[in-house]
Amino acid sequence: MTCCTGPCAAASHFNPKKADRDLRRYQRHGPDISTRILLSEIRRWPLQGLHLLDVGAGIGVIALELAGAGLAGVTLADASADYLEAARRHLASRDASLRAQFILGDFAATAGSLPDADIVTLDRVVCCYPDVEALLRGAAARARRIVAFTYPRDEWYVRAGFVVENSWYRLRQDPFRAFVHSPQRMASVLESAGFVRAARLAKLQWALDLYRRA
């Protein structure tokens, strides 16, 4: 899921056209760079028999890429009905054996009603949300073992790019917005929930943090 300002903006911005475009890009080029970073670290951990909750699941790339690792099941949550439908079709066409459920809605609001999972992932999702604390508190509450998330690096050139991007959306009267949150601010949420950081990886624009329950 690309960055957005909230569930209403996501529902309108992430439409069938964008879902089809993301699916074609994945079929041609594989996972995006932030997703590759996340997958490379998640695969270092034993996954056999575990349940994955992917928040902002988009077209279901993470679930599909990890399907061969022996997951017991996956839950895909997203604010866009069009993306969830694309994920449903995508998983059904590639791995019908993977037990999956699909949850539509604002995760920060619905997290309390979702089942626990061993691993919770959020790929390019924290930048969607102005209230990142609520989002990560929800992820931590649902995670029995691991929370892994990617986010835009808090660097001047990333912030400058987001200013340009958001200006373009504003000109188009599109409520979609992108946010750069402080890594320290995000860390404090997870640490206060009983998690410790086990890994951090960074590329030019994107970074990954993986936390395990202490």
Strand order, main sheet: write it out: 3-2-1-4-5-7-6
Fraction in beta strands: 15-25%
Uncertain spans, ≥5 residues at pLDDT below 50?
1-5
Under CATH, the homologous superfamily reads Vaccinia Virus protein VP39
Secondary structural class:
alpha/beta
User: CATH top level?
Assistant: Alpha Beta
Mean pLDDT: 90
From the alpha carbons, calculate the radius of gyration and give it in angstroms.
Answer: 16 Å
How does the SSE layout of this entry go?
Layout: H1 7-13, H2 16-29, H3 33-42, E1 51-55, H4 61-66, E2 73-78, H5 81-94, E3 100-104, H6 107-110, E4 117-122, H7 132-142, E5 143-152, H8 156-171, H9 183-192, E6 195-202, E7 206-213
Parallel strand pairs: 1-2, 1-4, 2-3, 4-5
Antiparallel strand pairs: 5-7, 6-7
Please characterize this protein's 3D structure:
With 214 residues, this protein is of the alpha/beta class. The protein has a single domain, classed as Vaccinia Virus protein VP39 (Rossmann fold), CATH 3.40.50. Helix content is 43%, strand content 22%. The chain is built from nine helices and seven strands; from the N terminus they run H-H-H-E-H-E-H-E-H-E-H-E-H-H-E-E. Strands 3-2-1-4-5-7-6 form a seven-stranded mixed β-sheet, with helices on both faces. Helix 4 (61-66) links the parallel strand 1 (51-55) and strand 2. Helix 7 runs parallel beside helix 9. It is globular, with a radius of gyration of 16 Å. The chain starts with 6 loop residues before the first helix and ends with a strand. 42% of the residues are buried.
